[in-house]
Amino acid sequence: MNPFTMESPTEAPEEYGTGTALACAILGLSFLIGVPGNLFVIWTILRSMKKRSHTVMLILHLAVADTVVLITVPLWIYSMAHTWEFGEGTCKALVYFISTCMYSSIFFITLMSVERFVAISHPFVMLRWGSKGSMNTFLLFLWLLAFSLGTPAILTQTLNEAGGVTQCFSREFSTDTQAIIIVCLETLAGFVLPLIILSICSCHVSMKIKKLSFNSKPKSVVLIHAVLIAFILCWLPHHIINIITVISLVMSDTEQEYIPEYLVFSSGALVFISSSVNPMLYAFFAKNFRGSLEGSRLVRLFQEMTVYTNKLRELAVQQQSGQGPSTQEVLISDSTC
């Protein structure tokens, strides 16, 4: 899932320059904000949160995946400004790891919503399977799935050369059918299916909360919705280009019109913003919490996310047990990892 991949020839030099300049600016901003932000999130969780809820564990793995993606940014900026000097093997390996981490980031965001859905809709299932071992199994499965889905990058990624400049931006497919299958798989697994799951879970949880008469809406809930909106905004342009690519391949009886290169570069750089935006959201929603250090505010925010999920689960348990959803009788039991 190389965000900068093109199936078209390089275009006019002036257009290439425009796309390169815009992409480098976006990438540079993502790197400067995202790497320190994600490292701070990782440091805060590992240092200050010995008992980690499932949600906090997902945030930790999400920050790790995003950091791995962002530390490759200097290589991309150098490549765009000059040429790719690191060989085809490095090109394939780099794109493979980026694809894997981008898939895993999307999966972790999705699992956050799924966990809230299960906690409020099937609380007894959550109590039975919400253990440390179960969460570790889910995390391992998602990482393995992401590594599997990133495999096409090794098979198809190649170097392209134009005007004496070598770049790591092209994929080489043996047939149009192979290209259609891989691009469709990328769009379905990396965007469409997660978006459907996220939407269903969010809508169902919202309706369930109304039935439980639980009117409190802490910052952590708005934060989860903000992460979802950021995911959609950052990834939608990239996958729209993917869909256009598939349509152009299917309509092979007509003259194929390629997407302007500057749009490919800009949408690809926008994808990297998705790996840097979450720490900014955490900081924004944590700013009103009391604490002398920014780290302590983040800890309070993450703790609120855990407490809120547990409250919803306890209310759902009481309702299904026929006890009534009395908020005064809610027992907050930490599900820790």
UniProtKB/TrEMBL annotation:
GO biological process: calcium-mediated signaling; cell chemotaxis; immune response; positive regulation of cytosolic calcium ion concentration
UniProt keyword list: Cell membrane, G-protein coupled receptor, Glycoprotein, Membrane, Receptor, Transducer, Transmembrane, Transmembrane helix
PROSITE patterns named in the record: G_PROTEIN_RECEP_F1_1, G_PROTEIN_RECEP_F1_2
Gene3D superfamilies noted in UniProt: Rhodopsin 7-helix transmembrane proteins (1.20.1070.10)
Record SUPFAM superfamilies: Family A G protein-coupled receptor-like
Membrane topology: Multi-pass membrane protein
Protein name, per record: Si:dkey-148a17.5
Organism: Oryzias sinensis
Upper classification of the organism: Eukaryota, Metazoa, Chordata, Craniata, Vertebrata
